[in-house]
Design a protein that fits this description.
It is a single chain. This protein has eight helices and 14 strands. With about 290 residues, the protein is α/β, with parallel strands linked by helices. The strands form four sheets. Strands 4-3-5-13-6-14 form a six-stranded mixed β-sheet. Strand 3, helix 5 and strand 4 form a beta-alpha-beta unit.
Length: about 290
Amino acid sequence: MEIKQLRAFMAVANAQSFLGAAQTLYITRQAVSKTVTQLEEELGVRLFVRDQNGASLTPAGAYFYPQARTLLADVDRLQRDMARLEHSPRQKLRVCMATGVNMMFTPALMDFAHSYAAEVELQLTTCRDVDCDYVLTNYRADAVLSFTPQNSRATTTSVILESPIVFLVNNNNPLAGEPFIELSWRRRVADFLLYTGGRDHCLWWPVIPRQGDTCCSDIDYLYQLLREDRGVLPMPQAMVPEDLDYATVIRGRPRVDPCQVYCSTLRQSYYDPATFKLLDRLCNEVLQAPGDEE
């Protein structure tokens, strides 16, 4: 089935005449008739009743009409979109970051967007860590940056950052004067404020929550509780705000395993060459992924 056959069919159906269709398409009546006949032979049904008064749709033709109209509308829309892309100097690159990761990478990504503004339209979004896999595999982003790797067979995941865990305490908290926090001080430490990113555990804190701890996916709410001196907030050092003036940063001892941040993309075959080239440039120039983890 060819596009020209669908256009000829629609023209005859709309004009109810092969001659009228020929005038609309600026071709001969014989060419229209031949094209429609080829379509009927391919489909194995008659689409028109032909008589001296013109052409009318058969039941099969009446069924086929809205389907053909939808197909042609999709083709026309695709052609318009491709024409716009042809005349657009920039390619789109969509990067989704888990909440928290955006604190680490947004400045570098904005610098990247500024440096390649003539070539790339960088679109940045955020989501919960637990939703990153859905965002990537449903083609809502070209790459996701998350605290947990996406281990689907269709994805490639790389560690792009490791950051030691520190503890934030309100300046009024007695612990603010301590040089470090021992994990064995569990009884001395006030309730913990644990970021979960939509999961059932803190993404970088290995200790099981106890009664009184606050587990939450809203990082801003946890900072509000910290401001009110309602607990201790373990945090990757790379996430600590530079303008934090109401809290003290305390290192932990023994050192908790560092937080890892991952960049996940789909396999190369899922991207058009231009997008894959942009992703490769982004990883090499901004994210600097040391290697892939299958």
